[in-house]
Design brief:
Layout: E1 2-4, H1 10-23, H2 28-33, H3 35-38, E2 48-55, E3 58-67, E4 72-80, H4 89-103, E5 108-112, H5 118-123, E6 127-133, E7 140-147
Parallel strand pairs: 4-5
Antiparallel strand pairs: 1-2, 2-3, 3-4, 5-7, 6-7
């Protein structure tokens, strides 16, 4: 079940983000260097919206959206707890995020993807528009977008 995420969820969402990043084979040192970027603060919810996927009483995954202007929204976070990866939770979360953006008259949804997630976003209609240099030499982060022409 997908329900709204709240400021009081910040700690558990941060834990999921860090666990999920670690799942993809990054070293402990690299994940630790990203800790600040992977930390969700309660005050994010002052301007961002998000949802979490619940299985019984456990948060299995979540996303956070940042509406930066009347036209554009960013997926700031989308993570699934490792034990739930491969169970279509990410798919349900991104579909929920897309519907939320479409229903709220967003014209474009942008994500700065991890290279491991590029194909996931591409399956949901996102197009890679740019490759940003990462903090890891030789690694690039796909900047991807999904347009909602019906909201133009």
């Amino acid at each position: 079940m997908i329900i709204p995420a709240k400021p009081s969820d910040a700690k558990i969402l941060t834990e999921i983000a860090i666990e999920s990043k670690s799942y993809w084979g990054y070293s402990e040192d690299i994940v630790e260097s990203w800790r600040e970027d992977l930390t969700i603060l309660p005050e994010f919810f002052d301007s961002w919206r998000g949802s979490k996927f619940m299985i019984d009483d456990e948060v299995a995954g979540f996303y956070l959206l940042n509406r930066v202007n009347s036209r554009t929204c960013y997926v700031e976070f989308l993570f699934v707890k490792p034990k739930f990866i491969g169970k279509n939770i990410g798919k349900q979360l991104i579909k929920h995020a897309i519907k939320s953006c479409r229903d709220n008259s967003c014209e474009v949804l942008i994500v700065l993807s991890d290279p491991n997630a590029e194909s996931f976003y591409a399956k949901h209609g996102f197009k890679t528009i740019y490759q940003r240099k990462s903090s890891i030499p030789g690694r690039f982060l796909p900047e991807m977008e999904l347009d909602f022409p019906e909201n133009n």
